[in-house]
Design goal:
Blueprint lengths: L1 E6 L2 H12 L15 E4 L4 E6 L4 H6 L5 E5 H7 L4 E5 L5 E8 L10 E5 L2 H10 L4 E5 L6 H4 L5 E6 L3 H5 L2 E10 L1 E5 L1 H6 L1 H15 L2
Parallel strand pairs: 1-3, 1-4, 7-8, 7-9
Antiparallel strand pairs: 2-3, 4-11, 5-11, 6-9, 6-10
The protein binds 1-O-pyrophosphono-5-O-phosphono-alpha-D-ribofuranose.
1-O-pyrophosphono-5-O-phosphono-alpha-D-ribofuranose (PRP) binds next to β9 and α6.
Length: 207
């Protein structure tokens, strides 16, 4: 049995469509219910629906053999997993953003609001810039609008949220996309099955 942690939502739907085409269908997934696990015993695959930011936890601890996780989560939490494949979906950018006319004159400590404290710290330490980190859990764009922070470090996908709040991307930190990840011991003990899955998924992406 291969256990797959899928992120709930649009990215999970897209990733499942690729897995289905790659030969890992699970008809139960199409049912309209609130179940969180779906199994296709005939081909030995079980899907779990997980919060996107939790996928790597399930995979790192071996509850799932493989999963689909955003590169943002991998950079932020650095889980001890193998990154097997760039799925080239869920593409966005990790950016510093702020008021359009914001210029960092480095005269005082920069206040940075983010859901990604490790990414932000690593970025600013590479720039030798002293920051005060404000850790938020969502609606990050609000922080500079109400004077909670000078800038934010956040995901920019379409850029709509920034524009509609009078903000703009100021610096790009890193491009982001979804990755196929694997538990390290599963990749040893289920080597054939997981290598085949990786190759099949790659085949679908390149088709
Ligand atoms: C993410 C991100 C931005 C927004 C960017 O938020 O944190 O707020 O999407 O997308 P856009 O560039 O297409 O506008 P999410 O929807 O995850 O909600 P959150 O505010 O709870 O973090």
């Amino acid at each position: 049995m291969i256990n797959v942690a899928l992120p709930k939502g649009r990215l999970g739907d897209k990733a499942y469509a690729v897995l289905e085409r790659a030969g890992y269908p699970c008809p139960a997934m199409k049912e309209d219910n609130r179940k969180l696990t779906f199994e296709n015993p005939e081909i030995g695959v079980r899907y779990f629906l997980v919060r996107p930011s939790d996928v790597a936890v399930y995979v790192e601890r071996g509850a799932a053999d493989i999963g689909i996780a955003g590169k943002d989560i991998l950079l932020e939490y650095r889980p001890d997993v193998y990154e097997l494949l760039d799925l080239r979906m869920g593409k966005c950018r990790m950016c510093v953003a702020g008021p359009k006319d914001f210029r960092d004159d480095r005269s005082s400590t920069l206040r940075v609001a983010t859901k990604f404290p490790n990414i932000a710290r690593t970025y600013y330490s590479a720039c030798s810039r002293e920051i005060e980190l404000i850790h938020l859990n969502g609606s990050i764009e609000l922080a500079p609008l109400v004077g909670l922070s000078d800038v934010i470090v956040d995901i920019v996908e379409t850029g709509k949220t920034l524009i509609e709040n009078g903000l703009a991307p100021l610096e790009e930190i890193v491009p982001i996309s979804a990755r196929l990840i694997a538990n390290k011991s599963s990749y040893k003990f289920k080597a054939d099955a997981l290598r085949t899955l990786r190759a099949n998924v790659e085949g679908v992406l390149n088709s």
